[in-house]
Design brief:
Distance between the termini: 15 Å
CATH topology: TIM Barrel
Strand content: 15-25%
Oligomer: single chain
CATH architecture: Alpha-Beta Barrel
Number of strands: 8
Order of helices and strands: EHEHEHEHEHEHEHEHH
Number of domains: 1
Structural class: alpha/beta
Length: 257
Amino acid sequence: MKLFDSHCHLTDPPLAQDLDGVLQRAANSGVKNFIVPGYDLFSSRSACRLASANSSIFAAIGLHPAWLTPTSDFSPEPFRQLARLRAPVAIGEIGLDYALKEYSAAKQAEVLRVQLELSTILSLPVIIHCRRAFEPLYLVLREFSEVVGVLHAYGGGPQLAEKFLSLGYYIGFGGGLTRPQAHKVKKTALMVPAERILLETDAPYIGSHTVAKGDSEPRDVLAVAHSLTDLRGWDIAETAALTTANTLRLFNLKERM
């Protein structure tokens, strides 16, 4: 069995302080590969360095809305140069977050559009973060019909998911799927086509039914996989094979594995 954590922050504490242990515990749970997204230029560079040193890890680069600088314009040029040097597999994580009151919706959308344009230039998929902004996000993504990607740690419900699926996007499920009361997430996981589902942890930032926020590791993808297996009536080997194949396809990784 081979699982893929499509979104984890191995460059951040506490995971970075025990990386060998984290990777070994993941391997013991069948989690063999990882995508590490950046959220600003520094973390993007760190993710690329980590990916260069470990063939099981792949990097994504981008500016998360929480790391916007209110007083200066965003330039994609440093990210463009990094991509040419380090061959990341995606632009991300990027997106909209209306829970962040210090950054205007207009500013967030402007920076998102610039990064979607960069993904077009570089022919890379995107990793999308969204909180309380699904309708505005849909309208922006609809402008870039040639871009595909994943809505990571999705929590918007089945009806909104239909909109993003219609654009060709994949849906990422993490620890939230393991919670018994997560009815909206479970309904979404039931309706998303099997070929559009990715698994993730967002470790260490999102917990699960049994693991506290801040303590999660990539090994916890196994619990997410079991929850999906129970929902869909699959077996765990089928879940692992499907979701790993989806990750390889979206991020064009078949020739890099």
